[in-house]
Amino acid sequence: MSDAPDNSLPNLVPADRPAPRRGPRLLFIAVLFGVLLNYPLLGLFDHDGRVGGVPVLYLYVLLTWIALVGLTAWLTRGGIKN
């Protein structure tokens, strides 16, 4: 036996459960929001309408961005169990 310290990272996933696969889900979220924040959909909301004094386009971008942050946080914090 060697007296060298064990520098390996601890296994945070229980042995009876496989490691979660977040990569494909994060890629899906990135592509989804890339589509939601691209021209054809932004063009639908680019008009003179206002909601509570805020232009509809600004509100759409803000709410879409909040949803992106929330979904990403939920996914990376372990919101989906495999």
From TrEMBL:
Keywords: Membrane, Transmembrane, Transmembrane helix
Transmembrane segments: 26-45, 57-76
Taxonomy, superkingdom: Bacteria
Positions of region (Disordered): 1-21
Protein name as annotated: DUF3311 domain-containing protein
Organism: Hymenobacter artigasi
